[in-house]
Write a structure and sequence with these properties.
Layout (H helix, E strand, L loop, with lengths): L1 H32 L6 H5 L1 H13 L12 H29 L3 E2 L17 H41 L5 H18 L9 H26 L3 H18 L3 E2 L3 H4 L5 H15 L4 E2 L7 E2 L8 H14 L31 H7 L5 E4 L14 E4 L3
Antiparallel strand pairs: 1-2, 3-4, 5-6
Length: 378
């Protein structure tokens, strides 16, 4: 009976939460899409507002948010949250830089400009940006990240678990990701790749990221590690790694909707999903639950398929000219010097291709005995 009552109460709470979240978010996102960017802060506090309304209506109180750090374990989790974007950024962006897919060209951000001279090396410039982003910018970002995390991980995640929803961590990530999609499709967030491509890749990254958020929140019983992770991610990725990355098509590789970031985040999700999950509503409380451990197996399979779908259409490296077709290519999609076997042409285009023996071709290179040409209709 107690379990049933808890489940019903959690479902009522979620109904109230979404009844406030969805229309309020729709209004704020519409304002942002039409050019009123000042509503971004209000939008980021919408999840917190929805959770407060649900708590007040059901008279639940605010104990299980929880705003206590929880001693040494809580501080260790906060430290891990702050360095997480650094390690993931070095892995994903590092691959892009070292392979030449994206150019490494850091410029000092505003807060770091006073510490960077005209002759400062690119690596030192990047490290100064990273130091400033990891400290000053991260602390400043708490003012907006807290609004999301008080709602997402401080309320919605634990209610999804109590409601008995299968794979609640996975569900929380999908909801969190979908909340951003209107801004992406509206062309005001993650601008660069075609909006539909950016939205799909973002969903992979966000859903995988939710496993990291959930493990920190549920393992400590405090919402502060989740707030720290959200703040550090926004600050470090957007203020240190993104400004250091240049090149045509860079946004398809890096950034929150980049292929390499999505792949790296999937690896992080697997690592953070290992072992038994401990649910703490507040620091000091402990309960083991298999429901919280929403294994990312099916999600990982779908994510890999999605990433493989986009792989053939990725642009070339950096600003260099490339023969690899992009997602927006038109006309011929094969480079001029690409050798396509005649058997393949006949198999793919049986009705519009024909082989002709032409003898010696004046345009042929070298002195061939005979040449062949393939004529095709356009």
């Amino acid at each position: 009976m107690l379990a049933t009552a808890t489940k019903l109460r959690a479902r009522r709470g979620l109904a109230i939460y979404f009844a406030v979240l969805v229309p309020l978010s729709a209004v704020f996102e519409a304002m942002i899409i039409v050019g009123r960017s000042s509503w971004v802060v209000a939008l980021m506090w919408t999840p917190a507002i929805a959770s407060v309304v649900a708590r007040l209506v059901l008279r639940e109180g605010f104990t299980d948010v929880s705003f206590r750090i929880g001693g040494r374990q809580g501080w260790k989790a906060i430290g891990a949250a702050v360095i997480f974007p650094i390690f993931l950024g070095l892995a994903a962006y590092g691959i892009a830089w070292t392979t030449g897919l994206v150019q490494f060209s850091p410029k000092p951000i505003q807060l770091a400009a006073a510490y960077v001279g005209d002759n400062t090396s690119p690596i030192i410039t990047f490290l100064i940006n990273l130091a400033v982003a990891s400290t000053i910018v991260t602390i400043y970002s708490v003012r907006t990240a807290a609004g999301e995390e008080i709602g997402w991980r401080g309320y919605m995640l634990t209610r999804l678990i109590d409601a008995g929803l299968p794979k609640p961590v996975l569900a929380s990530g999908l909801i969190w990701g979908l909340w951003h999609v209107p801004l992406i499709l509206g062309g005001v967030y993650l601008v660069g790749p075609p909006p539909i491509v950016a939205a799909l890749l973002w969903m992979v990254t966000a859903t995988a990221f939710s496993f990291v958020f959930a493990r920190l929140r549920l393992g400590t019983g405090s919402v502060w590690p989740a707030i720290a992770l959200h703040s550090a991610w926004n600050a470090i990725i957007q203020s240190a790694f993104d400004p250091a990355s240049k090149g045509a098509g860079a946004e398809l590789w890096i950034g929150e909707s980049g292929i390499l970031v999505a792949l790296t985040m999937i690896v992080a999700a697997v690592i953070y999903s290992c072992g038994r999950w401990t649910i703490r509503r507040a620091p000091g409380e402990q309960r083991e639950s298999g429901a919280a451990r929403a294994g990312p197996g099916q999600f990982l399979a779908l994510s890999i398929v999605a990433l493989m779908f986009f792989a053939p259409g990725i642009p070339g490296r950096g600003n260099e000219a490339s023969d690899v077709p992009t997602l927006t290519s038109h006309g011929s999609v094969l480079p001029r010097d690409f050798i396509l076997p005649l058997s393949t042409v006949k198999e793919i285009l049986p009705e519009i291709s024909r082989e002709t023996a032409t003898g010696q071709d004046e345009t042929a290179v070298g002195k061939p005995i005979s040449t062949r040409s393939v004529h095709h209709m356009r």
